[in-house]
Amino acid sequence: MRRLRIPERNVIRIDEARLQARMAALARIGRDPRGGVSRLAYSDTDREARETVTAWMREAGLTPRVDAAGNIIARRDGTDASLAPLLFGSHVDSVPNGGDLDGPLGTLAAIEAAHTMLDAGVRTRHPIEVVVWSNEEGGLYGSRAVSGQLPHAELDNVSASGRTIADGIRAIGGDPERLAEARRAPGSIAGYLELHIEQGQVLESTGTDIGIVLGIVAIYQWEVTITGVTNHSGTTPMDRRHDAVLAGARFVELVHRAVIDEPGTHVGTVGRFEASPGAPNAIAGEVVCSLELRALDTGVIERLYARIETEAKAIAEATGTTFAFSGLIASVPAPSDPRIRGAIAAAARTVGCSAREMPSGAGHDAQCLAPLGPIGMIFIPSVGGVSHSPGEYSTPEAVRNGANVLLHAVLEADRTLP
Amino acid sequence: MRRLRIPERNVIRIDEARLQARMAALARIGRDPRGGVSRLAYSDTDREARETVTAWMREAGLTPRVDAAGNIIARRDGTDASLAPLLFGSHVDSVPNGGDLDGPLGTLAAIEAAHTMLDAGVRTRHPIEVVVWSNEEGGLYGSRAVSGQLPHAELDNVSASGRTIADGIRAIGGDPERLAEARRAPGSIAGYLELHIEQGQVLESTGTDIGIVLGIVAIYQWEVTITGVTNHSGTTPMDRRHDAVLAGARFVELVHRAVIDEPGTHVGTVGRFEASPGAPNAIAGEVVCSLELRALDTGVIERLYARIETEAKAIAEATGTTFAFSGLIASVPAPSDPRIRGAIAAAARTVGCSAREMPSGAGHDAQCLAPLGPIGMIFIPSVGGVSHSPGEYSTPEAVRNGANVLLHAVLEADRTLP
Fold first, then answer.
1. A16-216+334-416 belongs to CATH 3.40.630.10
2. What ipTM was predicted for this assembly?
3. Minimal CA separation from A82 to chain B, in Å
C-alpha cells in the first residue's frame, strides 16, 4: 500500500451509500416489533450485530480482536511504529426499544472512515483502532474496564439481558477472569474520537451541522427523602399538617430556580417523585425524589447543591418536615482536549459544515478514555432531540456530515498529535 | 317495665367498667400481630365480632335481627307505638391493621347506653334501635343499602377480605338478592345518633371534651393528569423542557394557596403524586396526582375548584404542559339536624363536659342516614389525632364522657323529637 500525503484541501469523502446500507442492515438486527431496536448487551442480537460489524471491519482493512472485557478492537498499523494508536468508535448495544443511531452511528462511521482511507489509499502515521465498546448502555462497562474503572464486584451485576456482567462478557468472547489484561495505561493512546447523535435539540434549534463537544459533564445524583406525617386528609386542619408533598413541591421549584438563576449550560432535574402512602384521602408522610445536577464544572454543581441544601432547610421548617439527602452518583467531568477540538473544527471547515462548541450532557464511552489520552466527540443534530426511543432520527445529510467530519478529524489528529 | 320520667338534672351514668371490658374483649377479635386489629368486613373475625356484640345486645334488653344488607338492628320498643324509632350505633369492621376505637367505640357505647337504660329502668317514648352497620370501612355499604344509595352493580365489587360484596353480605347473614328490603323510607326514623372518635386533633388541641358535629363534609376528588414531554435530563437545556414534575409542583402549591386563602374549616389535599417514567436522568413526561377538596358547603368547593382550574392553565402555559382533570367523587354534604345538635349540647351540659361545634372531615355511616331523618354525631378527642392505625387511642375519661353524652343525647332526643 502506498502512502499518500493528504493535501490541505483534501476532499476525500465517505461512501454515503455504503454507510447507509450498513446502518440499515444493522438496524434489522434486534428489530423491535414496536419499532426501533432492542439489542441488549450480551444478548443473541448483540452477538449477531458484533459478528456483522466485525466482518465489515475486515472489509475496511482492519484486523479485529476481542479484548478481555469484550470490546472489539480492529487495528491497522500506521507508518510510524513508534506512535501510540489513534482510537475511534462507539457501541452497538441498545437500550430496550431504543433507536437505530445511538451507538451504531459512531461505530459504522468509524468503520466507514477506515474503509474510505483504505479505498483512497490513505495510510495514517499512527496505528488506527476502530473500537466497539461492550455494554455501553448498561453503564459503560467495556470502556470502564479499559481505563481501570470497573471494580471486580460489578461483574456480579445483572445486566438488562438477564446475564451477569461476567457471564455476558464470556458470551461475547471476553474473559472476566483476565479483565486486567484489557486495561490500557495513561499515555498509551494517541487520542480517542467518537461520533454520536446529540440526543438534544441544541444543534437542531440553532441550525448547526456539527457539535464540537467541550467535554462530558459531571453528573451528581442524590436521593432525597422528605419525611412528614401521614394523616387523614379530611380531619387534619391545614395548619396542623406535615405534608411531604407540599414540601416536595417547594423543593422542585427551588431546584428549578437555583439552576436557572445561574447562567450557563448546566442542568438540574427532579425526575423521580413518589408520595407515600399515595392515596387521595391521606396527607403524604413521605416523598422520595431524585435530584440530579450536571455541569462541566463541578464547582457549579457544588455551589448549586449548597444553595439547594440550605434553602431546603427553610422549606422543612415551614412545612414541619425533614429533608435527608443521600448521594448516589458523583462522576467527574471529562473535558475534551483542545487539540482534538481543533482537529474537529478544521475537519468541519474542510467538509463545509458549520460547527459550535457545546457540552455533552449525556455520558459516553469517551469519558472513560479521558484519563488515558486526549479525547474529543463530534455531535450531529437529532431531529426533535429524541433519543433512546424508536423515534430517534438524524437526516441522511447529518449522518454524512458527521462521518465526513469524523474521517477528516481523525486524519487531522493523525497529522497533529504526537 | 315501668317508665321513669327523666328529671332535668338526671345523673344516670353508663357503667364504665362494663364498657371498657367489652371494648377490651372486642379488641381481641382480629388482633393484629403488629398491634391494633385487622377485622376486615365479611371476614371470620368480623363475623365473630358481630356474634359477640349481638350477645351483648341481648344482655342490654334489645332484640337483634340482621337485615338484608347484613346490618345488625337491635330493637327495644318504646312507650308510644305510633312513633318512629330512634337509631344509634356504628360499626365493628376495621381497616387492615387499624385501631381499636374506630367503629367499636360507637357500637359498644350504644349498647352500653341501652344497657344503662335497662339497668335504670328507663323506657323511651320512641322505639330504640342499636345498629351495627355492615362494611363501613369498605365504603359505607350497609348504611348506603338502608338509604337506597347502593347500586346493584356494586355488589360485584371485591372487598378487602377478598369476597365480593354480595358474597360478603351472604356470609354475615344478609341476602343480596333481597337488598331492597333493607331500605328505609325518608321520615321512617325519628333520628340517628353516632358516637365516634374525632380522628383529628381539633378537640385535643383546644382541650374540648365533646365535638358536636355540624355535618359530614362533601368530598370532591379529581385525578389530575399533567402531560409534558419525557426527555433526557442531560441533553435538554432548561429552557427547552416540558417538565411535568415542575408543573405538578406548582399545582401542589396552587392548591395549598387557594385553600388557605379562604377562611374556614375546609381542606384541600394532593395526596397522590406519581411522576413517569420516574428516573433520576429523565425529565418526567407525565404526572398523575390527586386533588381532594372537602367542605360542609359545596359552594366553597366549587369556588376553590374554579380558581384551581383557572390558575392551572397558567401553570400549563408557563411549563409547556397540559392539565386534565377527571372527576372521581362528588359526595353531597350531610348536615346534622339542629335539634340533635341541641340534644347533644344539652347532654354535654348534663354530664359536665365542654363541647364545641365542628365539621366531620371524615365520612361516616351517619351521612347515609341524613336523607331518612335528623342525624347528629358526637366526637371525642383522639390522642395525637391518630386513626386507622394501631396507635389510635382515646383516654378512658374521653370514652366515658362520650358514652355518657350519647346516653343523655338519646334521652334528650327522645323527649324532644317527634
1. yes
2. 0.85
3. 39
